[in-house]
Amino acid sequence: MTRVPIRKGWCPGLYAPMQTHDGWLVRVTPDFVGLTAGQFRFLIDYAMRHGNGSMTLTLRGNLQLRGLDEASARAFASRAVMHRLGLADPAQEARRRILFTSPLAGLDPDCAPDTLALARDIQCVLQNLPAYWRAPEKFSLAIDGGGLVPVGALRADLALRCENGEWRLYEGAHCHAPCREDLIQSVMAALLRMTEAAGTGRALHRAAPFTGHVPPLLGAFLPGCFGARAVLGTLDARHCEILADSGATLRLTPWRGLVLDRVIATPDLITDPDDYRLDVVACPGQARCAQGLAFTQRDALSLAPDLGGRKLHVSGCAKSCASHDMHDVTLVASERGYDLIWQGKASDTPIETGLGVEDVRRRLRQT
User: Which residues form the Nitrite/Sulfite reductase ferredoxin-like domain (predicted)?
Assistant: First the structure.
C-alpha cells in the first residue's frame, strides 16, 4: 500500500512557524531591496544559537531557519521585527509577504524604472485594506518589470508585467492593460475578485507561465551585481559569516540564489555557470521532512556528475515541493525506491519504478 503524503495546505510565515521532521522552521520575507549586512548577521546568529545552523532559500525569495525548538521558533518574530525584517502586526505581515517583485528592480537599467515604486504603492494599499481581509493561502502577487530577468519569469497567481513599456495585468488566462492612473485600482480589484473566488471554493488560476529563459545570474553580470546560487538552496550559517563580515547587501532571487553588491565566495555558493550542481534540484527529503521517503539531496548530488548536462529533479514524495516543472530526469521516492520519469514532471506516469540510486546511475550512463 502506497503512503499518501500529507498536504498541510499552508506555508510558514513570520508569525506561523512550522514543525518539521528536524525541528521547527521559521521563515522571513526580506524587503524588495534585500537584506542589509546587519539583518543577515542577526539571521546567522539566530540559526547558529537556536537552530541547526542551516538556512534555506525558497522559490518565493524567502529565507528559512531550520531545526529550532518551539520556544525559539515562537520568539523569532519579535526579534525579527526589531531588526526590521517584518511588521509588528501579524495580519499586515501576512499581507506583505504575498507581494514580490523583480529581483533586479532598481539595479538593472532595463527593468521598468517604476517597478519598485509600484510595488511600494501596492504594498501600502494592501496594509490599508479592512482588518478582516486576508489573502488565500499560498497566494502570490508579482510586480514584474522585466529587463535582464525577462518579463514572465516570475510565477504568481496575479501578475503585473511591463511589456514594451506598458504595464499589463495578468489574472489567470485574462490579460488587460489599464491606464497608468488606474494600475493600482485594477490590481486591487483583481485581487479582491480572486479572494472572493477562493472564499467560495473555486480554484485559483495562476497568471500565464513564464515566457523567457531565466539567465543564471552568476558571477559579475551587471555593475555592482555579483550573483551566486546556494547548493540545493541551502546555506551553512558558519560559511555565511564571511558575507556578513564583508558588509555586503544581499537580494534573494526566486531561484534560490543571491545577488550581492560585491564579489564574495564561500564554500556553499556556486558562481561558475558550468558547475554541475546547478543541474539538480531536490527537496529536503527524509533527512528533514516526515513525508520524505529518501535522502533526496544526498542522492541528487551523487547523481549530478552522471547527468551530462541534463536537468535532474529528485522528490522525496509525490507532493513535489521543490519543483512542479518539467525536467530531463525526475525521480520520485516511494517505499519501493525511486520512480523514474524521463522528460516530465513528478506527476507524470513513470517508465520504471522501485529503482535504487545505482540503478538510476546506470540508466543515466546508458542514455
Answer: 21-75
Q: Is 363 left (phi over 0), alpha (psi -120 to 50) or beta?
A: alpha
Nine cell digits for residue 158: 496575479
C-alpha–C-alpha distance, residues 47 and 64, integer Å: 9
Give Cβ neighbours of residue 302 (< 8 Å, ≥ 6 apart). Answer: 357, 361
- Among residues 92, 111, 51, the alpha carbon closest in space to that of 251 is found at 111
pLDDT digits (tens, 9 = 90+) for 307-361: 999 999 999 998 888 888 899 999 999 999 999 999 999 999 999 999 999 999 9
Alpha helical stretches, state H, 97-178:
115-127
Task: Report residue 229: phi and psi, to 5°.
Answer: -120, 140
- This prediction has a pTM of 0.86
CA pair distance 166, 69, nearest whole angstrom: 48
Q: Are 197 and 204 spatial neighbours (Cβ–Cβ below 8 Å)?
A: yes
Contacts of 354 (CB under 8 A, 6+ apart): 334, 336, 337, 338, 339
Backbone angles phi, psi at 298, to 5 degrees: -60, -45
Rounded to an integer, what distance in angstroms lies between the CA atom of residue 104 and that of residue 106?
Answer: 6
What stretch of H or E contains 221?
strand 219-222
Going by their DSSP bridges, the two strands 312-315 and 280-282 should be labelled as parallel
DSSP string, 291-308: T--S-HHHHHHHHGGGST
Q: Residue 210 has what pLDDT?
A: 60
Q: Which three cell numbers stand for residue 196?
A: 472572493
pLDDT for 287: 81
Q: Provide the grid cell at 100.
A: 514580490
246-268 in b/e burial notation, b at 16+ Cβ within 10 A? eebbbbbbbbbbbbbbeebebeb
Q: Could you give the CA distance from residue 36 to residue 44 in angstroms, rounded to a whole number?
A: 12
Cβ burial of 111 (10 Å; 0-12, 13-18, 19+) is buried
Which H or E run contains 54?
A: strand 54-57
Cell of 105: 528592480
CA angle 128, 208, 183 (to 5 degrees): 35
Give 225-260 as a DSSP string.
Answer: EEEEEEGGGEEEHHHHHHHHHHT--EEE-TTSEEEE
- Which helix (DSSP H) or strand (DSSP E) does residue 341 occupy? strand 337-344
